[in-house]
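Entry:
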Amino acid sequence: MQPEDTSGITSRRSLLSRAGCGFGALALQAMVSETASAETTGTTATAATTVQAPLLPVVTPRAKRIIFIFMQGGPSHVDTFDYKPELLKRDGQAIDFTGVRFGDFGQVTKQKLMKPLWRFRQAGQTGRWVSDLFPEIRRHVDDLCFLHGLHTEGVAHGPSTLFLHTGATAQVRPSLGSWILYGLGTENRDLPGFVSLQPSDANGGPRNYGNAFLPTVCQGTSIGRSFQPASQMTIEHLKNPVLSPEETERRFRLTQRLNHIQAEQTHQRRSDAEAVIRNYEMAWRMQSIGPSLLDLSTESKETQAMYGIGQKETEDFGRQCLMARRLCEAGVRFVQVNYADQSTNPRWDQHSNMPQHAVHAKATDKPVAGLLADLKQRGLLEDTIVWWGGEFGRTPFSQGADGRDHNPRGFTVFLTGGGVKSGFSWGSTDEIGHLAVDGKIHMHDLHATLLYLLGLDHERLTYRYAGRDFRPTDIYGRIVHDIIS
């Protein structure tokens, strides 16, 4: 064997070694650049991405995980869960409203009240009022906790959706799911700790499940897209259809060795490179349980029917809700189920056609009720929080012939499970459902309360970035102890 030439002329062996690592560096640098773009907030400061061990809960946790059922577009609370007899009495009456939208912001205008378009009925031992839009969810009212005094920031879908997810209307901030993953870590090392099912690319898109400046491992993993049918909801390339498992593993090990070499030589963004390596390792481990976890055909026909799978109206959302249960059962901390589409005027956004609410209710009512029943019978509801809601509500007055405008000033969401009081309601809007007046809960307060139920203090859950300690609720938020059992 010829010794390596040290006279300044590169040997063939040295050239191949450096070139091979060089090609690996190109790929790794591309992945690191993608990470950096997701973590940059527009400042000139370098993103702090040091991966830290999960923080221990600072209060006794009541729950281990959250399923967030996102009703994109803003369902009308006065037509669903916030019964207002006064609207029935005063239907068509014109009264003064102070505008919150762009053209009429701060201006007082006359608007005509519009009664609920669906009948409300009392249900359960608690006698809670629920409209005929949700007959299946109505069967579960004794397990639910209605928050009727919610209010939020932003009047358009984009800012309000971002605020719902990140606590900011414009700045790039981590999603609540990313904060939870940062604070608690994952229960299953072979799965992501934060998953978003069929998210929309509109109204914030990936920022709604993004890690922003938190470590890259806190990024949410999307499964499916809102423009695809749920039957295609999967993680692509979990299995190599061409190579044998042995050859696939050999190539993976080689790639990781090259990545480790490059990480040692990447001084300024070494933590990013190491995060990419960890993500590759998780992706590799997911191959062992991912395919079976994502295969809903292993569920019994009775279970699938409970979610509405096999029925035209409920097939898609039923699949999402069943997948959410399977992911939580497998140890995913935060699962978001998105009833969303790609439109800038999404799903529940009926400005001129409120009867369309019936279509969306039909698609989601049975799947959500099925999820609640399934979680309860499996004992998962005891340590799983289910959170249902949109980015805002809708006005009690009409818009156009039979529509309603956006209303961030007062609306309803419901919670259940995980230490939340059952058969309970907290807060209220005024007599026509326009403004939150009693038991007011700001979106920051809701975030703080959810974190508290998971064992995290929103004031102590911080991350230093660009010379400042950030927290999920910024400088706001209070824990609503009144709704905790």
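The radius of gyration is 25 Å.
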